[in-house]
Amino acid sequence: MHIDLPMIWAAIIGLGVFLYVLLDGFDLGIGLLFPFFHGEGDREVMLNTVAPVWDGNETWMVLGGACLFAAFPVAYGTLLPAVYMPLIAMLCGLIFRGVAFEIRAKARRTQHLWELAFMLGSAMATFCQGVILGTLLQGVTIVDGRFAGTAFDWLSPFSLFCGLGLLTTYATLGCTWLVMKTDGELQRRMRVMVKPLVLTLLLVIGVVSLWTVLGQQAVADRWFARYNFVFFAPVPILVLACVAGIVRFNTRGHDKLPFVLTQAILFLGYSGLLISIFPYIVPPSLTIWAASSPPSSQKFTLVGVLIVLPIILAYTGLAYWVFRGKVRHGDAGYH
Predict the structure, then answer these.
(1) Whole-prediction pTM value?
(2) 280 - beta bridge partners?
Protein backbone atom coordinates (compact mmCIF):
# COMPACT_ATOMS: atom_id res chain seq x y z
CA MET A 1 0.00 0.00 0.00
CA HIS A 2 1.36 3.40 -1.01
CA ILE A 3 1.67 5.93 1.80
CA ASP A 4 1.90 9.57 0.79
CA LEU A 5 4.49 10.72 3.33
CA PRO A 6 4.57 14.37 2.20
CA MET A 7 0.81 14.61 2.77
CA ILE A 8 1.16 13.08 6.24
CA TRP A 9 3.91 15.54 7.11
CA ALA A 10 1.91 18.45 5.69
CA ALA A 11 -1.00 17.43 7.93
CA ILE A 12 1.26 17.23 11.01
CA ILE A 13 2.79 20.65 10.33
CA GLY A 14 -0.63 22.10 9.56
CA LEU A 15 -1.94 20.77 12.87
CA GLY A 16 1.06 22.17 14.76
CA VAL A 17 0.71 25.63 13.21
CA PHE A 18 -3.02 25.72 13.87
CA LEU A 19 -2.65 24.67 17.50
CA TYR A 20 0.07 27.27 18.01
CA VAL A 21 -2.10 30.07 16.60
CA LEU A 22 -5.12 28.81 18.54
CA LEU A 23 -3.36 28.46 21.90
CA ASP A 24 -0.74 31.20 21.81
CA GLY A 25 -3.16 33.56 20.10
CA PHE A 26 -5.26 34.34 23.15
CA ASP A 27 -2.32 34.83 25.51
CA LEU A 28 -0.67 37.17 22.99
CA GLY A 29 -4.08 38.83 22.80
CA ILE A 30 -3.95 39.54 26.53
CA GLY A 31 -0.81 41.61 25.93
CA LEU A 32 -2.69 43.54 23.24
CA LEU A 33 -5.54 44.28 25.68
CA PHE A 34 -3.22 45.35 28.49
CA PRO A 35 -3.19 49.06 27.53
CA PHE A 36 -6.96 49.29 28.13
CA PHE A 37 -6.70 48.11 31.74
CA HIS A 38 -4.55 50.18 34.08
CA GLY A 39 -5.43 48.72 37.47
CA GLU A 40 -2.74 46.43 38.87
CA GLY A 41 -5.39 44.03 40.14
CA ASP A 42 -7.02 43.68 36.71
CA ARG A 43 -3.70 43.13 34.98
CA GLU A 44 -2.71 40.56 37.58
CA VAL A 45 -5.91 38.58 36.96
CA MET A 46 -5.44 38.81 33.19
CA LEU A 47 -1.93 37.37 33.45
CA ASN A 48 -2.94 34.70 35.94
CA THR A 49 -5.45 33.26 33.47
CA VAL A 50 -2.58 32.16 31.21
CA ALA A 51 0.32 31.92 33.69
CA PRO A 52 0.18 28.10 33.97
CA VAL A 53 -0.01 27.45 30.21
CA TRP A 54 1.52 30.27 28.16
CA ASP A 55 5.03 28.86 27.77
CA GLY A 56 3.70 25.39 26.93
CA ASN A 57 1.64 26.91 24.11
CA GLU A 58 4.83 27.92 22.31
CA THR A 59 5.89 24.26 22.10
CA TRP A 60 3.79 24.05 18.96
CA MET A 61 5.87 26.72 17.23
CA VAL A 62 9.04 24.77 17.96
CA LEU A 63 7.43 21.56 16.73
CA GLY A 64 6.23 23.19 13.52
CA GLY A 65 9.62 24.72 12.73
CA ALA A 66 11.48 21.49 13.45
CA CYS A 67 9.09 19.44 11.33
CA LEU A 68 9.34 21.90 8.44
CA PHE A 69 13.13 21.62 8.50
CA ALA A 70 13.05 17.80 8.69
CA ALA A 71 10.27 17.04 6.20
CA PHE A 72 10.41 19.98 3.76
CA PRO A 73 13.97 21.35 3.72
CA VAL A 74 13.47 23.05 0.34
CA ALA A 75 10.49 24.98 1.72
CA TYR A 76 12.48 25.81 4.85
CA GLY A 77 15.38 27.08 2.75
CA THR A 78 13.21 29.24 0.47
CA LEU A 79 10.65 30.62 2.91
CA LEU A 80 12.99 31.72 5.69
CA PRO A 81 15.21 33.98 3.53
CA ALA A 82 12.05 35.69 2.31
CA VAL A 83 10.96 36.58 5.86
CA TYR A 84 14.21 36.84 7.83
CA MET A 85 13.51 40.37 9.07
CA PRO A 86 9.96 39.85 10.37
CA LEU A 87 10.97 36.42 11.70
CA ILE A 88 13.84 37.85 13.75
CA ALA A 89 11.59 40.70 14.95
CA MET A 90 8.94 38.14 15.97
CA LEU A 91 11.45 36.13 17.99
CA CYS A 92 12.68 39.31 19.70
CA GLY A 93 9.09 40.17 20.57
CA LEU A 94 8.51 36.71 22.04
CA ILE A 95 11.73 36.98 24.06
CA PHE A 96 10.82 40.40 25.47
CA ARG A 97 7.33 39.17 26.24
CA GLY A 98 8.54 36.03 27.97
CA VAL A 99 11.16 37.83 30.06
CA ALA A 100 8.63 40.51 31.01
CA PHE A 101 6.13 37.85 32.04
CA GLU A 102 8.66 36.32 34.42
CA ILE A 103 10.22 39.48 35.85
CA ARG A 104 7.07 41.60 36.18
CA ALA A 105 5.81 39.36 38.99
CA LYS A 106 8.90 40.15 41.10
CA ALA A 107 9.66 43.74 40.07
CA ARG A 108 8.39 46.64 42.13
CA ARG A 109 9.94 49.95 41.06
CA THR A 110 10.31 48.89 37.42
CA GLN A 111 7.07 46.92 37.09
CA HIS A 112 5.57 49.48 34.69
CA LEU A 113 8.57 49.10 32.37
CA TRP A 114 8.15 45.32 32.27
CA GLU A 115 4.45 45.75 31.58
CA LEU A 116 5.40 48.00 28.66
CA ALA A 117 7.84 45.33 27.42
CA PHE A 118 5.07 42.74 27.71
CA MET A 119 2.67 44.86 25.65
CA LEU A 120 5.21 45.81 22.98
CA GLY A 121 6.59 42.26 22.77
CA SER A 122 3.09 40.83 22.31
CA ALA A 123 2.25 43.41 19.64
CA MET A 124 5.54 42.92 17.77
CA ALA A 125 5.29 39.12 17.78
CA THR A 126 1.67 39.20 16.61
CA PHE A 127 2.20 41.80 13.88
CA CYS A 128 5.24 39.97 12.51
CA GLN A 129 3.37 36.66 12.42
CA GLY A 130 0.70 38.38 10.33
CA VAL A 131 3.34 39.84 8.01
CA ILE A 132 4.87 36.37 7.52
CA LEU A 133 1.41 34.97 6.76
CA GLY A 134 0.75 37.74 4.25
CA THR A 135 4.11 37.15 2.58
CA LEU A 136 3.33 33.44 2.22
CA LEU A 137 -0.12 34.13 0.83
CA GLN A 138 1.05 36.72 -1.73
CA GLY A 139 3.76 34.34 -2.95
CA VAL A 140 7.54 33.98 -2.77
CA THR A 141 9.85 34.37 -5.77
CA ILE A 142 11.57 31.02 -6.39
CA VAL A 143 13.94 30.14 -9.24
CA ASP A 144 15.42 26.64 -9.59
CA GLY A 145 14.24 25.71 -6.11
CA ARG A 146 15.89 28.71 -4.42
CA PHE A 147 14.68 32.02 -3.11
CA ALA A 148 15.29 34.65 -5.79
CA GLY A 149 13.69 37.70 -4.27
CA THR A 150 15.04 40.49 -2.09
CA ALA A 151 15.26 40.92 1.67
CA PHE A 152 12.33 43.36 1.54
CA ASP A 153 9.83 41.36 -0.52
CA TRP A 154 7.77 40.94 2.66
CA LEU A 155 7.29 44.72 2.86
CA SER A 156 4.06 45.13 0.92
CA PRO A 157 0.69 46.74 1.67
CA PHE A 158 -0.98 43.33 1.71
CA SER A 159 1.44 41.73 4.19
CA LEU A 160 1.34 44.80 6.45
CA PHE A 161 -2.46 44.69 6.44
CA CYS A 162 -2.31 40.99 7.34
CA GLY A 163 -0.14 42.01 10.30
CA LEU A 164 -2.83 44.44 11.45
CA GLY A 165 -5.47 41.79 10.82
CA LEU A 166 -3.73 39.29 13.08
CA LEU A 167 -3.56 41.93 15.83
CA THR A 168 -7.36 42.13 15.62
CA THR A 169 -7.67 38.33 15.58
CA TYR A 170 -5.54 37.76 18.66
CA ALA A 171 -7.16 40.65 20.53
CA THR A 172 -10.58 39.09 19.88
CA LEU A 173 -9.33 35.69 21.04
CA GLY A 174 -7.84 37.22 24.18
CA CYS A 175 -11.02 39.16 24.93
CA THR A 176 -13.35 36.15 24.65
CA TRP A 177 -10.84 34.05 26.64
CA LEU A 178 -11.01 36.58 29.47
CA VAL A 179 -14.81 36.64 29.30
CA MET A 180 -14.66 32.91 29.95
CA LYS A 181 -11.97 33.00 32.66
CA THR A 182 -12.95 36.09 34.70
CA ASP A 183 -16.01 37.53 36.42
CA GLY A 184 -17.21 40.74 38.02
CA GLU A 185 -16.29 44.18 36.68
CA LEU A 186 -13.36 42.90 34.64
CA GLN A 187 -15.58 40.45 32.79
CA ARG A 188 -18.21 43.15 32.23
CA ARG A 189 -15.64 45.42 30.61
CA MET A 190 -14.44 42.56 28.43
CA ARG A 191 -18.00 41.91 27.28
CA VAL A 192 -18.28 45.52 26.15
CA MET A 193 -15.19 45.06 23.97
CA VAL A 194 -16.31 41.81 22.32
CA LYS A 195 -18.79 43.24 19.79
CA PRO A 196 -16.55 45.96 18.25
CA LEU A 197 -13.62 43.54 18.15
CA VAL A 198 -15.49 40.71 16.44
CA LEU A 199 -17.12 43.07 13.92
CA THR A 200 -13.69 44.52 13.12
CA LEU A 201 -12.41 40.97 12.73
CA LEU A 202 -15.20 40.22 10.26
CA LEU A 203 -14.24 43.32 8.26
CA VAL A 204 -10.59 42.26 8.24
CA ILE A 205 -11.48 38.75 7.04
CA GLY A 206 -13.59 40.24 4.24
CA VAL A 207 -10.86 42.65 3.11
CA VAL A 208 -8.11 39.99 3.15
CA SER A 209 -10.32 37.53 1.26
CA LEU A 210 -11.32 40.06 -1.38
CA TRP A 211 -7.76 41.39 -1.72
CA THR A 212 -6.42 37.87 -2.21
CA VAL A 213 -9.00 36.89 -4.79
CA LEU A 214 -8.58 40.11 -6.80
CA GLY A 215 -4.80 40.08 -6.59
CA GLN A 216 -4.10 36.44 -7.37
CA GLN A 217 -5.77 34.72 -10.29
CA ALA A 218 -4.76 31.25 -9.07
CA VAL A 219 -6.64 31.77 -5.80
CA ALA A 220 -9.66 33.17 -7.66
CA ASP A 221 -9.68 30.11 -9.91
CA ARG A 222 -9.46 27.81 -6.89
CA TRP A 223 -12.52 29.37 -5.26
CA PHE A 224 -14.71 30.18 -8.27
CA ALA A 225 -13.74 27.86 -11.14
CA ARG A 226 -16.59 25.58 -12.24
CA TYR A 227 -18.63 24.60 -9.18
CA ASN A 228 -15.88 25.07 -6.60
CA PHE A 229 -17.63 27.90 -4.81
CA VAL A 230 -20.62 25.66 -4.17
CA PHE A 231 -18.37 23.30 -2.20
CA PHE A 232 -16.39 26.06 -0.46
CA ALA A 233 -19.34 28.38 0.27
CA PRO A 234 -19.90 26.90 3.77
CA VAL A 235 -16.65 28.54 4.92
CA PRO A 236 -17.77 32.20 4.57
CA ILE A 237 -21.35 31.33 5.57
CA LEU A 238 -20.16 29.69 8.80
CA VAL A 239 -17.89 32.68 9.53
CA LEU A 240 -20.93 34.97 9.38
CA ALA A 241 -22.91 32.56 11.56
CA CYS A 242 -20.11 32.45 14.15
CA VAL A 243 -19.87 36.25 14.29
CA ALA A 244 -23.64 36.51 14.81
CA GLY A 245 -23.44 33.80 17.48
CA ILE A 246 -20.63 35.56 19.35
CA VAL A 247 -22.56 38.83 19.50
CA ARG A 248 -25.76 37.10 20.56
CA PHE A 249 -24.32 34.78 23.20
CA ASN A 250 -22.10 37.50 24.62
CA THR A 251 -25.14 39.79 25.01
CA ARG A 252 -27.03 36.97 26.74
CA GLY A 253 -24.25 36.47 29.27
CA HIS A 254 -22.75 33.18 28.10
CA ASP A 255 -19.17 32.72 29.28
CA LYS A 256 -17.77 29.92 27.13
CA LEU A 257 -19.61 30.09 23.81
CA PRO A 258 -18.08 33.38 22.56
CA PHE A 259 -14.59 31.92 23.00
CA VAL A 260 -15.55 28.62 21.34
CA LEU A 261 -17.07 30.46 18.37
CA THR A 262 -14.01 32.71 18.07
CA GLN A 263 -11.90 29.55 17.88
CA ALA A 264 -14.28 28.30 15.17
CA ILE A 265 -13.71 31.50 13.17
CA LEU A 266 -9.97 30.93 13.45
CA PHE A 267 -10.40 27.36 12.20
CA LEU A 268 -12.53 28.52 9.29
CA GLY A 269 -10.00 31.20 8.37
CA TYR A 270 -7.23 28.63 8.49
CA SER A 271 -9.30 26.31 6.32
CA GLY A 272 -9.77 29.11 3.80
CA LEU A 273 -6.00 29.66 3.71
CA LEU A 274 -5.36 25.96 3.04
CA ILE A 275 -8.01 25.92 0.31
CA SER A 276 -6.35 28.93 -1.32
CA ILE A 277 -2.77 27.62 -1.41
CA PHE A 278 -3.01 23.79 -1.57
CA PRO A 279 -1.02 21.88 -2.86
CA TYR A 280 1.68 24.56 -2.60
CA ILE A 281 3.65 24.76 0.61
CA VAL A 282 5.35 27.95 -0.62
CA PRO A 283 3.14 29.62 -3.24
CA PRO A 284 3.03 30.12 -6.10
CA SER A 285 5.29 27.34 -7.40
CA LEU A 286 6.67 25.02 -4.70
CA THR A 287 4.41 22.05 -4.03
CA ILE A 288 4.42 19.75 -1.01
CA TRP A 289 5.99 16.93 -3.02
CA ALA A 290 8.65 19.08 -4.70
CA ALA A 291 9.77 20.47 -1.34
CA SER A 292 9.90 17.20 0.58
CA SER A 293 12.99 15.43 1.88
CA PRO A 294 13.86 11.84 0.82
CA PRO A 295 11.34 9.18 1.95
CA SER A 296 13.93 7.55 4.20
CA SER A 297 14.41 10.81 6.11
CA GLN A 298 10.67 11.37 6.40
CA LYS A 299 10.09 7.83 7.69
CA PHE A 300 12.87 8.11 10.27
CA THR A 301 11.71 11.44 11.67
CA LEU A 302 8.06 10.40 11.54
CA VAL A 303 8.75 7.73 14.16
CA GLY A 304 9.99 10.39 16.58
CA VAL A 305 7.06 12.71 15.89
CA LEU A 306 4.54 9.92 16.44
CA ILE A 307 6.09 9.37 19.87
CA VAL A 308 6.43 13.03 20.86
CA LEU A 309 3.12 14.37 19.49
CA PRO A 310 0.80 12.37 21.81
CA ILE A 311 2.94 13.41 24.80
CA ILE A 312 2.63 17.10 23.90
CA LEU A 313 -1.12 16.74 23.37
CA ALA A 314 -1.46 14.93 26.70
CA TYR A 315 0.40 17.44 28.85
CA THR A 316 -1.26 20.36 27.06
CA GLY A 317 -4.69 18.92 27.73
CA LEU A 318 -3.76 18.12 31.33
CA ALA A 319 -2.54 21.67 31.97
CA TYR A 320 -5.79 23.20 30.74
CA TRP A 321 -7.85 20.66 32.69
CA VAL A 322 -6.00 21.22 35.97
CA PHE A 323 -6.22 25.01 35.71
CA ARG A 324 -9.79 25.18 34.42
CA GLY A 325 -12.31 27.51 36.02
CA LYS A 326 -12.46 31.19 36.87
CA VAL A 327 -9.53 33.34 37.98
CA ARG A 328 -10.44 36.07 40.46
CA HIS A 329 -8.90 38.96 42.32
CA GLY A 330 -7.01 37.68 45.33
CA ASP A 331 -6.17 34.28 43.84
CA ALA A 332 -2.55 33.14 44.16
CA GLY A 333 -0.40 35.15 41.78
CA TYR A 334 2.24 34.06 39.32
CA HIS A 335 5.44 32.98 41.09
Answers:
(1) 0.92
(2) 287
